[in-house]
Design brief:
Blueprint lengths: L13 H10 L9 H6 L7 E5 L2 E6 L15 E7 L3 H14 L5 E5 L1 H10 L4 E5 L5 E5 H6 L6 H13 L4 E4 L5 H14 L6 H15 L7 E7 L2 E10 L4 E9 L1 H4 L3 H12 L5 E3 L7 H8 L5 E3 L2 E5 L1
Parallel strand pairs: 10-11
Antiparallel strand pairs: 1-2, 2-3, 4-13, 5-13, 6-11, 6-12, 7-8, 8-9, 9-10
Helix pairs in contact: 7-8
Length: 308
């Protein structure tokens, strides 16, 4: 199976990555074209196009002691509708060149099932609950129907009573500086200096704003008391699922319910997508509680797999 050379993903890959995800009707944030491109440096990502699939590997470039994939090369499950078994055999040989068994860090149930059925007794699997994606019905987040969302509606009402001038504005190049202000306030309030992950995220958000149009990112800003107080940025995973990459609020407005407001207001703007993926909780107790409180339609389970 001859494949082109691996290369670092860039904006030139965005459309191909997106179309591959659409063709397979994927929902995982791991398969988001924007995430693949924006996190290319953090995860040392390489991609290639092979037999109708997109192939990915991580940690394949020169690593530093703080990178998450310092000791081995990991692979993404092929994206697309090509011959999956042939693609996985190609990845197996690529892994062998690096002197290690093939390993996938983040598989969905469907991808895990493929390996179990098509390549039985070849992989060991470990569930990764902290990396499970929270998938919601977009309509539910926009409308907050029924009694189960009563607390969320109260938080929104509380915010609007306290900040009667509050408005939500779609994100654009013209107001991108306001997102930078929100991110900087959040960064400072959360001890960002010296925290590798938070520092890395700051740089990724900066790049996402520079590539807003090129990556077809969408988002919004919540204003209150005449200033920007919360922001959100996301992109489509497929024509059915939209991924929320970043959502931040200035701490004092967070306590008033800013997250509930921007969550609902943004959901209203992406009604063309049936589902909203609000990504994982990373095992953070407060984040898990908050994401569960919005009653996800499903938890998209994640697994790691390693060849025996």
């Amino acid at each position: 199976m001859g494949c082109p050379e691996w290369h670092v993903p860039s904006i030139d890959d965005a459309e191909k990555l997106y179309m591959a995800s659409c063709s397979a009707n994927l929902m995982s944030c791991t398969d988001s074209y924007a995430n693949i491109i924006l996190y290319r440096n953090k995860y040392k990502t390489l991609v290639c196009y092979c037999g109708g699939n997109v192939l990915r590997k991580y940690g394949a470039l020169e690593a530093t002691e703080r990178d998450i994939a310092t000791t081995r090369t990991l692979y993404g499950f092929p994206i697309g509708t090509g011959d999956m078994k042939a693609a996985i055999e190609f990845l197996t040989k690529d892994a062998e060149k690096n002197g290690m068994p093939l390993a996938f860090p983040l598989l969905t149930d469907k991808q895990k099932l493929f390996l179990e059925r098509k390549m039985p007794n070849r992989f060991t699997f470990t569930e990764r609950r902290d990396d499970s994606d929270y998938i919601y019905l977009t309509k539910s987040l926009a409308e907050l129907p029924g009694g189960k969302y009563h607390k969320k509606k109260n938080h929104i009402s509380q915010f609007m009573r306290k900040h009667s001038d509050a408005t939500f504005v779609p994100l654009s190049k013209e107001n991108a500086d306001d997102v930078r202000k929100i991110e900087r306030e959040w960064f400072d309030a959360n001890g960002g200096n010296g925290d590798y992950d938070i520092e890395e995220e700051l740089e990724i958000i900066k790049e996402s704003l520079l590539l807003l149009d090129e990556l077809n990112l969408k988002g919004g800003i919540l204003y209150a008391d005449g200033k920007p107080v919360a922001m959100t940025i996301g992109s489509a995973i497929s024509d059915k699922t939209f991924d929320v990459h970043f959502e931040k609020a200035v701490p004092v407005y967070d306590r008033d319910g800013a997250y509930a407001v921007i969550n609902q207001q943004f959901a209203k703007t992406v009604g063309a997508y049936e589902y909203l993926n609000r990504e994982e909780d990373l095992g953070i107790e407060g984040l898990r509680k908050a994401k569960l409180s919005y009653h996800p339609e499903m938890l998209l389970a994640k697994w790691s797999a390693e060849q025996l």
